[in-house]
């Protein structure tokens, strides 16, 4: 089971945090801080795996990947395959976010975090992988966007349409 | 308009937060936003509800409390519009804490939405349920989820499948309801549904043995067929990750097969063909392919035995180790660690590759490889593997040396085929990384050396050689110093030469030189120096020709600033000068150290037998005969046999270290503190016995010495020494130092100062009762007439001592008072001493008003609390 997905920037600011177990917000923040503490001191050219048991308790593993100014971190238990978790980060970043935002960058994630959550919910549900085909994920997200737009929604809007918000 | 009122847009809030330069600014912005949102919540604002919740989610991510938004989520979920519901569910998943009442309230909305005509709303509800469901919700909503497993749209079916996993995890009793629908999901063609269906079956097997049996009987063939279809399927770009068709599905299938095959030979048999196919035909040049291979290996290792497949699997792992990608090497090592339990022989074949990984550039891979090598070592391969590891030790990173040294030492100790090999390897390790080994390691080495009596000469010469080469590694120096002290004669005379040795010429003075180097070297620690001093002392009797020189070196150390060295030197030179007749007996070679006792200690157990037999000669009557050498040697060597069972934990006592391998962290302190007879103490100390079981035996130790010496001179001499030290000890005790300070520093300095610096004021008896007098002495600094320094002196007029003495003072507002700590809190009786305390008073209305003070003095006498109070009005006018 996947325990958490975190995105943080290279300064340690959380950009997305989704925990699949109940955790008080202070605990979540502490975990993010500790993960960042380990990440920022990692040398180059080492594996993408980190001993996570000291941070997340027994039976936990951590995979991360570094894209531009962001770290993408997935924490999971021994029932998941470490290598495929690395591919899951690829799927999220390079095949989904990249298609949604064209050259996705940190700001896209900051200003569209509720959309990012929706995308994430189409990939992982309850700590289990839901869908691994980026076309399926994109289609589901598009449908939701359309529904939002049809009801003249406020908060779930692509960047370009944000001027609607100014009412 | 205030840009942070509740009217701000989400994007503006994010901008405002991003613009903050400090954490404090950010907190202020967030606080304002939260206040506005709370106000909107209180007004039951409808228009901005979902905007506010969206803001709260952002604020939550930054780590601020947002619990007040939970009820807003429920309101949004209950509303009709899709955007409101979406944000409501999102907020529910993020902001919710474990408060069950909120979950209870949401159950009804969820039930409605699970039956909604809009499938996207059904999707939202399933997603929320799958993420946060409690056991109660699971029970209430399980029938709806079960029904949705057959929903027409695959996107709902897959969400319902994962939702079911949450439900059966929360309420395992419900598993049987899901068995049938789950097995029909396995026949799906849609990959998303298939992945989630396989996962649901896997989790069903975990929570219910009934389900496990059911799937074993009904589904294995279907699963094998599905896996074969995907493995053989032509390239299909939509599922493709790095050229492999849907690795996620591969892995889920392999995982389910693993659970079904584990412990069931028949089931395992069904899947061997496809596993062999996946293991041998999957492309391994990409991460996705390796992920499948990795999962396949794990399945092969877990299912029932099939020798051929396991070799194939372990060979795959062997290939992983030479992959360029760090991640692959990392997981390969992890898996080999598990595989070694299953098939150690097959893993042994990859020893060379694993050894290469010990030299990896990635520290976490190095560490794992080292663990694995450690597991691989046995009697037959310990020699080549140790050789490899020691060779690598020479070039390894500093940070890694500690780990690798510990492992080598443990291996050498565990599998050593011969003592000489053990000693050789340990010397190599110590000379390479001696600074990284724990104390137990070199202690153990000394024990082994001590027990290898035929190798004493060889060892001391080898150690002398490496010592000459370098004194960088301190633990090596310690062992060398210890051995030279013990076996110095063998070093010089080349006793017990082995064939493999090159002859070496060492003169007596060379050996003494070496010890002198160890004592004088700045880099070496106190323990090492003290050991070198003892070694020199021992050599003084082994090398009569050098004994004068040794005496000189020892005498030089009498001036050492380090107390321990100074004391040892004084004691040793005393023996050298005045006790020649017992010296050789005192510095006898140590008896062979008992390995069992040591290993027992190491294991944390107490020595089993407490023998007192060797103490017996100590009971010789005073003045009779020459005492046997053995017991003295024994005492000097801190023989553990005589030690009472002592707590092992104490450790760290310098005395023990001083004698090298102390075997009994016993009661050195208790030995020195139990008797008021300082002579005994000094002797005990001198001999570093400290382990004597009773006062009786320690006093008989004196008997031995004085008997052998015929007169009491040395004892009294030592007594004198001791009284000296006790005097100086007294001098530093707090009570008398206070007195001295009082006499010298306090009054003296201050009175002198104010005589020089300003008009003198007469001292004043500020307070006097039948039991106590307080006198004030005044002084001032020139140019600062407002501030007066007062020294209060308290004198006890009663015949009883006052304890817990406390002086307090209070002044009116125009005065400022500062009290320094008192010189003591005990006031001796009958005026035999005093307490002084300094006060600083600043008079802000200097010249208009004069000083005035209320005082309170509390103390204890005869166990009674006494309180005296008073007011002082008779200060000199112009203060």
Automatic annotation (TrEMBL), chain A:
Gene3D superfamilies with a match to the protein in the record: 3.30.450.60
Classification via InterPro entries: AP_complex_ssu, AP_mu_sigma_su, APS3, Longin-like_dom_sf
Cellular component terms (Gene Ontology): AP-3 adaptor complex; endomembrane system
Top-rank taxon, per record: Eukaryota
Pfam family name, one: Clat_adaptor_s
Domain AP complex mu/sigma subunit: 1-147
Subcellular location: Endomembrane system
GO process annotations (BP): Golgi to vacuole transport; intracellular protein transport
Keywords: Membrane, Protein transport, Transport
Family to which this protein belongs: Belongs to the adaptor complexes small subunit family.
Protein's name according to its UniProt entry: AP complex subunit sigma
Origin species: Gossypium tomentosum (Hawaiian cotton)
Taxonomic lineage from the root: Eukaryota, Viridiplantae, Streptophyta, Embryophyta, Tracheophyta
UniProtKB/TrEMBL annotation, chain B:
Name of the protein in its database record: AP-1 complex subunit gamma
Keywords, ordered alphabetically: Cytoplasmic vesicle, Golgi apparatus, Membrane, Protein transport, Transport
Predominant localisation class: membrane
Function: Subunit of clathrin-associated adaptor protein complex 1 that plays a role in protein sorting at the trans-Golgi network and early endosomes (TGN/EE). The AP complexes mediate both the recruitment of clathrin to membranes and the recognition of sorting signals within the cytosolic tails of transmembrane cargo molecules.
Stretches assigned to the GAE domain: 759-876
Annotated organism of origin: Gossypium tomentosum
Family to which this protein belongs: Belongs to the adaptor complexes large subunit family.
Cellular component GO terms, alphabetical: AP-1 adaptor complex
Gene Ontology biological-process annotations: intracellular protein transport; vesicle-mediated transport
UniProt-listed Gene3D superfamilies: 2.60.40.1230, Leucine-rich Repeat Variant
Location in or out of the cell: Cytoplasmic vesicle, Clathrin-coated vesicle membrane; Golgi apparatus
PROSITE patterns, A to Z: GAE
Bilayer topology: Peripheral membrane protein
InterPro entries with a match to the protein in the record: Adaptor_Complx_Large_Subunit, AP1_complex_gsu, ARM-like, ARM-type_fold, Clathrin/coatomer_adapt-like_N, Clathrin_a/b/g-adaptin_app_Ig, Clathrin_app_Ig-like_sf, GAE_dom
Pfam families noted in UniProt: Adaptin_N (PF01602), Alpha_adaptinC2 (PF02883)
SUPFAM superfamilies: ARM repeat, Clathrin adaptor appendage domain
